[in-house]
Amino acid sequence: MSSSRQKQDKGRLRLGVNIDHVATVRNARGGAYPDPLRAALLAEKAGADGITAHLREDRRHITDTDIDALMAQLTVPLNFEMAATAEMQAIALRHRPHAVCIVPEKREERTTEGGLEVAREENRIAHFIAPLRDAGCRVSIFIAADEAQIRSAARIGAPVVELHTGAYCDAHAEGRFDARDAELERLRVMSALAHSLGLEVHAGHGLTYDTVTPIAQFPEVRELNIGHFLIGESIFVGLPAAIAEMRRFMDAARG
Question: How far apart are CA 223 and CA 14, in angstroms?
Fold first, then answer.
């Protein structure tokens, strides 16, 4: 990223655009289109502060070739989402992306269902992330808004946590507004806790125009990672327009 853009974006709530589901559409036909790299470059031009891509163990959407292309051509940071496996660690160490986000992964799930279990696996996760940090990657842990998980992430030396907003977004979509408000309060309190422990706070999963504003208003949150909704909305309005509208909501939330 250019120094001028870094200065311009300093202090602004950052938007990371996840391009996984461009690859989902491509892989449905087994061809070359639509190209996730093209989507990433469009997102970059439209004002995305970073690109997120999850290389799953079963390669259901993003592939190794996609990661190669993104690393070669992006000028904004790549946030490389991955499971805590030896295979993924080796890929990350070979590429050394700007950021590595450790996520839970089950082959039978449609999408990431919850946060990583850190509290019961502190020793394993600490040893897993150490080489990534040594290689210069900014390590993030994708966790639920849970005090035990946040304190564990801080203890093992992860500089960033990304709080899972899926339960909040699902409750909103299903009209369970008491549950939505309870989840939102939990996210607010846990964002403040993580920040107080010296962690940089990110958030993401399931965010839409209807749900982004309250999360974007948390002063501790520095970055939102949004993908599925933006890719879906782009079918109707185009990706740059979808990103611009999300950026508008985020900026308005910050006042």
Answer: 4
Q: Which CATH number fits domain 3-254: 3.20.20.70, 2.40.10.10, 2.30.110.10, 3.30.70.20?
A: 3.20.20.70
Is the Cβ–Cβ distance between 131 and 93 less than 8 Å? yes
Helix (H, G, I), strand (E, B) or coil at 104: coil
Cβ(135)–Cβ(91) below 8 Å: no
Domain boundaries, the chain: 3-254
- Nearest Cα neighbor of 200 from 153, 132, 247, 165 is 153
Q: Which of the residues are catalytic?
A: 54, 81, 205
Classify residue 217 by its DSSP letter.
Answer: T
At residue 255, the pLDDT reads: 85
pLDDT digits (tens, 9 = 90+) for 120-174: 999 999 999 999 999 999 999 999 999 999 999 999 999 999 999 999 999 999 9
- Residue pLDDT, tens place only, 183-225: 999 999 999 999 999 999 999 999 999 999 999 999 999 999 9
Q: For residues 179 and 104, give the distance between their C-alpha atoms in angstroms, rounded to a whole number.
A: 24
* Among candidate residues 224, 220, 219, 244, the one with its CA nearest the CA of residue 234: 244
